[in-house]
Amino acid sequence: MKDGISAEIEFGVEFYDVDSMLIVWHGNYIKYFEKARCALLGKIGYGYVEMKESGWAFPVATLSAKYVSPLSFRDRVRAKAILVEYENCLKIKYELYNAETGRLCTRGESTQMAVELASGESRFACPKILLDKVRNLPEEGGK
C-alpha cells in the first residue's frame, strides 16, 4: 500500500446544514465526508466522471461515523480524507476538524466496491486504471 495519500478541503458551515439549535445535523457530516472524498479522488485523478468514462462505478458499501464534538453554524471545517485501501476496494478514513480551534469533531470510514458498469457486476479487485493512478502519484512524505 502506498503511504501518505490524503486530501483536505476547508469550508464553512452553512445555515441550511444546521438544526434549530444551530448545530450541524448529524446526516450532514456524511456530506462533509463526501466533500473530502471528492478532493481525494480529484487528487488521484479518478473522480466520478473519470470512473464513469472508464466503465466503472464505486458505490458505498459500508459507512461509519463517530461524533466527537459538534460543529456549529459559521464554524470553519477542515475535512480530511485518507486512502487506506485501493487494491480490493476503496477504503477511506475521514477526519473533520474545527478549522479555527483544531479540535477533532468527527471521524469515520467508508468502503466502496468496484462495479463494472457494462455488466452491473461487483468486482472484488479494483480496476487497473485506478491501481495505476494511485501507484503513479508522487510520494507525499507521510502527510
Q: State the name of the first-level CATH class.
A: Alpha Beta
Instruction: Estimate the global geometry from the Cα principal axes.
Output: elongated
Spatial extent as radius of gyration: 16 Å
CATH topology annotation: Thiol Ester Dehydrase, Chain A
The CATH H-level homologous superfamily: Hotdog Thioesterase
From N to C, what is the helix and strand string? EHHEEEEEEEH
The assigned structural class equals alpha+beta
Q: Total number of helical segments?
A: 3
How many domains? The number is 1
Return the CATH architecture. Roll
The percentage of residues in β strands lies in: 35-45%
State the end-to-end CA separation: 15 Å
Q: What does the main sheet amount to? A: 5 strands, antiparallel
Overview of the molecule:
The protein is α+β, with helices and mostly antiparallel strands and 143 residues long. The protein has a single domain, classed as Thiol Ester Dehydrase, Chain A. It has three helices and eight strands. The protein has helices at residues 28-44, 48-53, 128-135, and strands spanning 6-12, 56-57, 60-67, 76-85, 90-98, 104-112, 114-116, 121-123. Strands 1-4-5-6-3 form a five-stranded antiparallel sheet, covered by helices on one side. A three-stranded antiparallel sheet has the order 2-7-8. Strand 7 and strand 8 (121-123) form a beta hairpin. The protein is elongated. The two termini are 15 Å apart.
